[in-house]
Write a structure and sequence with these properties.
Elements (H helix, E strand, L loop, with lengths): L1 H26 L8 E6 L6 E7 L2 E6 L8 E3 L11 E5 L6 E7 L2 E5 L16 H10 L14 E4 L5 E2 L6 E6 L7 E7 L2 E6 L8 E2 L6 H17 L48
Amino acid sequence: AQRKMEWHEMLRDFWKKLMADLVLAGDAPHVKAKMDPAPYVCPKCGSQTGYRFGKNGQFLSCVSYPDCVYAAPVDREGRPLLPERVNICSPENNQPMVMRTGRFGRFITSDLPPKPPKAKKKKKTKKQLAQEVASGVVALAEPVEKKQFIINVDLKGKIKLPSVPPLLTDLNCPKCLTRKLNLRLGKRGPWLGCSGFPKCRGREAMGKLDETMQKTLEVALANHEAANPRAAIFTMDDVPVKDGDNVVEFILPGGVQLLAIHPDSQVPAPIAKAG
């Protein structure tokens, strides 16, 4: 009985200390929301800049965010760095592409100005939609936004060139039953997967289809592949970039981005340490 009481007392003391720490943590400012002043002028809008913390560490940001979306990585001294450039010619602006890091690892993309954040649209209720239909109002579909061209880099640092877009078939997904199946050409031949991936991971085996349907899909896929060849990617020196090339071979030397000092800044400019 005495051991049981000691166990209960130990657990009670633990929770008391934990709750006290949680209260203190709740009152403290969020480290990612905090901004420390920086001496530089924003090169996009002329405002002051500040240092924030993100998932990849400290970075320089415009104080006018989200109206201005300028951001740049910084070195140990807090100096803004130029993007890590890659000796691959962008098909969008014929300039060297840059290396970025996202949720799923590194990727190569065009060095284009960032897009401002989209304003959230209020979702219409069923009653509002019914009223619009009754009054003859036709809601126009929003234009499909063109996606920025990117080249993926796998965990081994190998370049994965963009693949041919899938062919949408008339076959329903056997799992969700609401979406159509995409037809792709893989290493083992044609395969069918739900067009709603990753929300639905349904697949259909080609062998389960009748022979006529298989041949029809194979011919359609061959025509689709011929009409949508892989984009030819070259370096800035017109050397072809091949699938599986090591990305290290294409990295260009970077450097510090030279920004003006804001006249209202009370923070001294960082100085590079010797050695």
